[in-house]
Amino acid sequence: MAPGSRCCLLLLLLLLLGVLGAPALGDPGPLEDVVIDRYYIPKICLREAQMGDFIRYHYNGTFKDGKKFDSSYDRGATVAGVVGVGRLITGMDRGLQGMCVNERRHLIVPPHLGYGSIGVAGLIPPDATLYFDVVMLDIWNKKDKLQITTLSKPERCNRTVENSDFVRYHYNGTLLDGTPFDSSYSKGSTYDTYVGTGWLIKGMDQGLLGMCAGEKRSIIIPPFLAYGEKGYGTVIPPQASLVFSVLLVDFHNPKDGVFLEHLEVPESCKRRAVTGDFVRYHYNGTLMDGTLFDSSYSRNQTYNTYIGKGYIIPGMDQGLQGVCVGEHRRVVIPPHLAYGENGAGKHKIPGSAVLIFDVHVIDFHNPADPVEIETVFRPEGCNATTRDRDFVRYHYNCSLLDGTRLFSSHDYEKPQEVTLGANKVIEGLNSGLLDMCAGERRVLIVPPHLGHGESGARGVPGSAVLRFEVELISMEEGVPEGYLFIWHGEPPANLYEQMDLNKDGGIPAEEFSTFIKSQVAEGKGRLMPSSDPEKVIADMFRNQDRNQDGKITPEELKLKSDEDQEKIHEEL
Predict the structure, then answer these.
(1) Which residues are catalytic?
(2) Which of 48, 158, 236, 312 is least buried, going by the fewest C-beta atoms within 10 A?
(3) Distance between CA 366 and CA 350 in Å, rounded?
(4) So what's the pLDDT on residue 572?
(5) Within a 10 A sphere around the Cβ of 147, how many other Cβ atoms?
(6) Residue limits of the PPIase FKBP-type domain (predicted)?
(7) C-alpha closest to that of 190 among 349, 49, 346
(8) What distance in Å separates the CA atoms of residue 439 and residue 436, rounded to the nearest whole number?
């Protein structure tokens, strides 16, 4: 067929269609189905509305000329219903299916899928085409279950939430379309409650189970596990799905006791702390989410206290029982054994908070403790040992029980010298130096009541237990307390005459010193041991020269034993 013939036939066909009443070009005629314009589709669409789903949405309804005939916005309430089961006009039923939450659609509903030839008296005329602008807000189904997504979880999780546990958590609550309705963060405090006892909506009761402290979850709760048909006030509409972003801060059970974790225990642990012991320890105190609320390290001072006597919170009283010196221990304390429902504002401890103490035990002792003596080396054939009033020379190293070095005689040119029992050294060291042989080595553990006490001393913390490594270098037999010189036998009957070497009736310092030295040299007596014998003799002369005129007269010279006897008679 020629091209001209084809053109004539096409023109004839168009004329016939016009005669028969077919729509002219440019006029599509009546719509057969709903026209759907998905003008906004969210990037994430976890679910599309299906037949039988419950949905909540907002809409504006207009005619072709833009005149509004209805709006859910004007009523201040969303529309809730079931899609695809004939409860809506057919066009809306079809137009809502497949929508995502937060999706927006323009719908054009022809009359036969709307209100038909009847319309709605006073509102929608017959055979009206309807235009809807719709936003989907919520989708759920009666078969839905709780949707739990773990956002983050700590590496260590020794325990998870169970029914009847008391939990403290932060949350942000939104509707399914992202509209926020509540947040614990805005209140500046956690939400605290029991789980599984009916104090929470069912979905939250279920959603918190199995969580670890520090875990973050997203929990999507369908309306029938939330506030259902009634909603909640003005913030949660009826039939609303809820989305909670939850951070579990801590939890415990009212039946919980103290939980102990032994982080580091010294291989040698000869003794463990018991009730009545006085313990010095460092600690870091944190909440279960890691928030630091207190630290002895920040004060550069140990915490010192008796245990088992109620001076500290009950959980710590229990948690320190059985510790070793040098032990690192973690003590987890439930609130009913700590600061309870009220917390402790001074230390930034919230009410009902579980506390975690990481403890390092520096030392401990009991007020009844004696000096602990360990003989490291004792020479064979040891016959002479130190006694009270003996003069001794010794080397020592002094440290705290955690190994902190304090003092050492090796830092000086010569050993330490002291007369035992003369109150020149701490009581514990004095005791530890008794009954030693020359050359013997000992380790002494000195409790503070036999050391420097609660106040401590320069370089020594208060209430510190001290460790001494001592080595006895030499010893000299001493004299009784109060004496500077003693006779090995009876003193000469004519003592004054023997002292008065030039027989001039007076004994100056030189004659006195010469006589005393001769008595020592001949083994008839001995001076109080000292590193400076001349000073001892000078003190003796000063005591006898009662009028301090530089010489001793017969009336002034008296033996110490005679002086003591006179004092007794005077008192009687």
Answers:
(1) 59, 69-70, 89, 115, 132
(2) 158
(3) 34
(4) 32
(5) 16
(6) 52-140, 164-252, 276-365, 389-476
(7) 349
(8) 8
How far apart CA 344 and CA 268 sit, in angstroms, is: 38
Q: Mean pLDDT in runs of 10 for the chain (572 residues)? A: 40 32 45 93 94 96 96 94 93 96 97 95 95 97 96 92 97 97 95 96 98 96 96 94 97 96 91 97 94 95 96 97 96 97 85 96 96 96 92 96 94 92 94 96 97 94 97 91 86 86 90 90 86 88 91 86 53 36
Q: Which pTM was predicted?
A: 0.75
Report yes or no on 11 lying in a domain.
no
What CATH number did the domain enclosing 293 receive?
3.10.50.40
Please enumerate in sequence order all residues whose Cβ is within 8 A of that of 448, keeping only pairs 6 or more positions apart, or say none: 278, 365, 454, 462, 463, 464, 465, 466
Please count the structural domains in the chain: 5
pLDDT attached to residue 161: 97
Q: Are strands 242-252 and 166-175 parallel, antiparallel or unpaired?
A: antiparallel
Q: Which amino acid is at 323?
A: V
Inter-residue contact 373 to 442 (CB < 8 Å): yes
Q: What angle do CA 451, 454, 457 make, to 5 degrees?
A: 60
**Residue 530 to residue 454: CA distance in whole angstroms:** 32
Burial call 535-546: b when 16+ CB within 10 Å, e when fewer: ebbeebbeebbe
Q: Are residues 511 and 548 in the same domain?
A: yes
Q: How far apart are CA 333 and CA 258, in angstroms?
A: 5
pLDDT of residue 21: 36
Q: What angle do CA 227, 229, 230 make, to 5 degrees?
A: 65
| C-alpha to C-alpha distance for 32 and 118, rounded to whole angstroms | 18
Instruction: Give the domain-ending residue among 350, 365, 380.
Output: 365
Q: Would residue 8 count as lying in a domain?
A: no
* 293 assigned to some structural domain: yes
Domain that holds residue 496: 485-571
d(CA 558, CA 570): 16
Q: Could you identify the residue written with the tokens 């875990």?
A: 215
Q: Give me the pLDDT at residue 156, please.
A: 87
318 is written with which tokens?
A: 């229990």
What amino acid occupies position 245? S
Total count of residues recorded for the chain: 572
Residues 376 and 420 in one domain: yes
The pLDDT value given to residue 37? 97
Q: Are residues 313 and 393 in the same domain?
A: no
Structure tokens at 385: 């040992």
